[in-house]
Design a protein that fits this description.
Rossmann fold; globular; single chain; DUF3097_C; DUF3097_N; alpha/beta; SH3 type barrels; DUF3097 domain-containing protein; 7-stranded mixed beta sheet; 28% helix
Length: 278
């Protein structure tokens, strides 16, 4: 026989019976959430005065108040400000190395890392900047490697002034490979290391998924590569300013080493080790 009145309505927890409990989540950096009212999905960039800033895949920023109205993997959460430990506790830099907080940048070493262009330098700074400042390593771009021999003769590398060089499209038989081989036979060979990645341009070292692609488009050799990529993606490319904006759009999707291809990661780490060897 069903006893409709057997339950004790004053028993502990009666107020929560049947209620859906929405969990809280600290808004730590790089956490990806969706704001339900607008459908905006992005990664947490910062939290200031109970406002969270999100950045989506296209680099667009939106500000929202902390609290309810967010989803993580489709499940509702209430975003709260991160604790002090969480806010300060990013134990890894963008390159994946252990972060060393509250340490001033080291005075710049005499040794240098040379890269071919501005985009290479900006990418290296974004991922390895914290490590390079800690080690006191300056990265300079040299606008191509055609004049590498003259640059090395002017710099005059030595055991106290080592040079690491990162080269695009370093594949067998290429012009770049011949330049690298000449540097390895030159008078400063003991204190110069030239390494490279196989990509036509450093753009291609960014994983294509970061810009919504399954693979970077094939560009005919008769077309300048960056222009061809922009054209394939439907981005403006008539002027140099268009190319610069396209690169910033790509760079905006790079947050950690996980967004880059391993062929680039290993080369840069090798160069850093070479120029910081005591």
């Amino acid at each position: 026989m069903d006893d409709r009145y057997s339950a004790d309505v004053l028993s502990p927890g009666w107020r929560e019976a049947g209620r859906i409990i929405i969990p809280t989540q600290e808004a730590v950096r790089d956490l990806v959430v969706e704001e339900t009212a607008t459908g905006f999905c992005g990664a947490v960039i910062r939290v200031e005065k109970k406002i969270v800033t999100l950045e989506d895949r296209q680099g667009k920023l939106r500000l929202f108040p902390l609290g309810s109205g967010f989803l993580i993997d489709g499940r509702p959460v209430t975003l709260i400000a991160p604790t002090m430990a969480a806010a300060l506790g990013r134990v890894r830099t963008a390159s994946g190395s252990t972060a060393v907080p509250n340490v001033p940048a080291r005075v710049a070493r005499a040794s240098r890392i040379f890269v071919e262009g501005r985009h290479d330098a900006e990418l290296v700074e974004k991922i390895w900047g914290a490590d390079l400042r800690l080690e006191g390593v300056v990265v300079e771009y040299i606008e191509g490697v055609d004049n590498l021999d003259a640059i090395l003769r002017e710099f005059r590398p030595s055991s106290a002034r080592r040079v690491g060089v990162l080269v695009d499209h370093l594949v067998p038989g290429s012009k770049e490979s011949r330049i690298a081989e000449a540097a390895a036979r030159g008078p400063f060979a003991a204190n110069v290391l030239v390494v490279g990645h196989p990509f036509v341009d450093v753009w291609q070292s960014v994983k294509p998924a970061r810009v919504g692609l399954t693979a970077w488009p094939e560009v005919p050799r008769s077309i300048e590569w960056k222009h061809g990529i922009c054209d394939a993606l439907g981005w403006p490319h008539e002027e140099q300013a268009d190319i610069a904006r396209a690169w910033q759009r790509i760079l905006g999707q790079v947050r950690t080493f996980a967004d880059l291809e391993p062929q680039l990661l290993g080369r840069v780490e090798h160069l850093i080790d070479f120029v910081t060897a005591e």
